[in-house]
Amino acid sequence: MSLKLTTKAIWLLPFLFSIFTLTTQAKTAHFWQNATVYFMLTDRFNNADPSNDQAYNRTEKTAKLRGFEGGDIKGITEKLQQGYFNRLGVDAIWMTPLIEQVHGYDESDGITYSYHGYWPKDWTAVDANFGDEDDLKQMIETARQQGIKVLLDVIINHTGPETQADWAWPESWIRTTPVCQWHNYQENTQCALATSLTDVRTESKTEVELPTQLLEKWQKEGRLEQELAELASFFERTKYPRAPKYYIVKWLTDWVREYGVDGFRVDTAKHVEAEIWQVLKRESQLALQAWKRNNPQKVQDDLPFYMVGEVYHWGLNGHGNTAKDGLSYDYGDKQVNFFDHGFDALINMSFVNDVKQSPEQLFSNYAKALSHELDGKGILNYIGSHDDQNSYDRNRKQAFEAAFKLMLAPGGVQIYYGDELSRAMYAVGAYGDANMRTPMNWQDLKAPKTQAILAHWQKLGRFRQNYDAVGSGTHKQLSQTPYIFKRELSGSPSVLLAKDLPIGAKTISVYKLYANGEQVFDHYSNTALTVRNGSVKLNNEFTYALIGKARAKK
To answer: How far, in Å, CA of 323 to CA of 317, rounded?
Structure first.
């Protein structure tokens, strides 16, 4: 990978360095168990540099919302600099893949460009439509300065489709048939996800040559010798065969080694043989350790590298293809526990259905599961995503309730860009997943209704961020009407939460959670309170209360 820094001595470190500390963690780091992750389509979030909008001559008229709209890495940096994510209580940002995409278009569903980032052409370069490596470095540095982690979205499963503007990967690297049939392990892992997509031969350990066209591309860009030297060092150190999956592992972990990326969101994890994820995790941990040694002044914590996987149809409480143990994915003929293969967390596909339950049913069920079969493991709950057409409340009719249930649910949470602004999840003339990928509706911020829903998300997000008990503590209902509950976590402040309170004057029992005379704070109305006679008094227009022992830390 042609990267800006020149220190490459770390490639010569013995592979056994700290090997016993680099195995899969038995428990997910507490930070990630409680994290709020903000996920955005880079191209649809914020356009701060119009000069890169038509990179690689991607100018053909496309189907509705299936071309590049202009969002870029600088757009993310701009919102970081404005404090947008901090005001939401965001702990980490995750954006769709930034690596170079196929330059041409696919016509299977109308003309479609790779605006989404999931059609790789070159894993070693940033796509010019999104910016360049300097933009990426600045974005990560800006996030780090604000205490916000950065997750990159990574792909090993497939390349992009062959187009008139692109060369095809050789058959030694990829297959285009059969199309996945989903009935068993092999029909999920050794198959193409769609007729327009390839499938990397990730099961293979046969050594392959680099594609001639990729070598020519690197030569033209003036980095062929460096790329080849780095690959030689990688394979000499690791002793892995030069098979496709190991090339890609090397290329992906370069981004960690160079820029200190905090973690990966792994795309289509169930469609790759699970063993490779342990390799990716181990190499990523080595890369992050190397970055920390080379950048001691920038190190902020000792958190290990984090990996969260997209295992489609896996979910909490046995949803979809989740096995009876509550942990494994059931292929039919084989069960795989991805937590045993390098993953700290899995995206919880159940939440979009479970969120339809009452808050108490939802919260108590999740708290129970996370203290039993998923104890010490991580999940990411969500109400909306870029490819789940069952996303909850796509008409945005229950915006306040949806935010309350998501942000106060036990476990980690994923905010999908625009959830906090009630961004439209349908577009006239669009079809399929394009509907869920509308441009961020920044223009709506002027509307009082949008300002109100954003303020609601911000209060919930900052409260969650400041009290670990919200996502990781034990849950107990204290009152059914109004709905009042508490969260308690050993070593952390306890919190009292309420909804459906009366507008105006109200008295709220603290149920002996706080002592008489104790000073507490309602983070929803931004009001300091004193406990008297086992209660606190509020007088405001809000029907929610978020009570803790101190003002927000951030």
So the answer is: 10
Q: In the chain, count of helices (H) and strands (E)?
A: 15, 22
Read off the pLDDT of residues 380-408 as tens digits, 9 standing for 90 and up. 999 999 999 999 999 999 999 999 999 99
Secondary structure letter of residue 432 according to DSSP: G
Please spell the DSSP secondary structure of 484-550, one letter per residue.
EEEEEETTEEEEEEEESPPSEEEEEE-TTSS-TT-EEEETTTTEEEE-BTTEEEEEES-S-EEEESS
Distance, in Å, from the CA atom of 33 to the CA atom of 411, rounded to the nearest integer, reads: 6
Helical residues (DSSP H) of 275-358, grouped into ranges: 275-294, 351-354
Residues annotated as catalytic are 267, 310
Cα–Cα distance list, 204 to 120, 175, 190, 200, 403 (Å) = 20, 12, 10, 9, 44
CATH class for the domain made up of 475-548: mainly beta
Phi then psi for residue 314, to 5 deg, are: -90, 140
pLDDT band at 551 (very low <50, low <70, confident <90, very high): low
* 529 within 8 A of 498, measured Cβ to Cβ: no
CA angle 449, 507, 501 (to 5 degrees): 30
Q: Which fold has domain 9-161+245-466?
A: TIM Barrel (3.20.20)
Q: ω before 170 within 30° of 0 (cis)? A: no
The token duo for 55 is 């990179």
- For residue 437, the SS3 value is helix
- Burial (0-12, 13-18, 19+ Cβ within 10 Å), 167: middle
> What is the per-residue pLDDT across 29-82, written as a single tens digit (0 to 9) for each?
889 999 999 999 999 999 999 999 999 999 999 999 999 999 999 999 999 999
Which sequence spans correspond to the domains of the chain?
9-161+245-466, 475-548
Whether 5 shows a pLDDT value over 80: the answer reads no
Distance (Å) of CA 554 to CA 297, 462, 466, 524: 22, 8, 7, 15
What does the block give as tokens for 288?
Answer: 């992050």
Which helix (H) or strand (E) is 162 found in, with range?
Answer: none
Q: Counting beta carbons within 10 angstroms of the beta carbon of residue 524, is it exposed (0 to 12), middle (13 to 18) or buried (19 or more)?
A: buried
Beta bridge partners of 192: 179
Mean pLDDT, rounded, for 401-420: 98
Percent of the chain with pLDDT over 70: 94
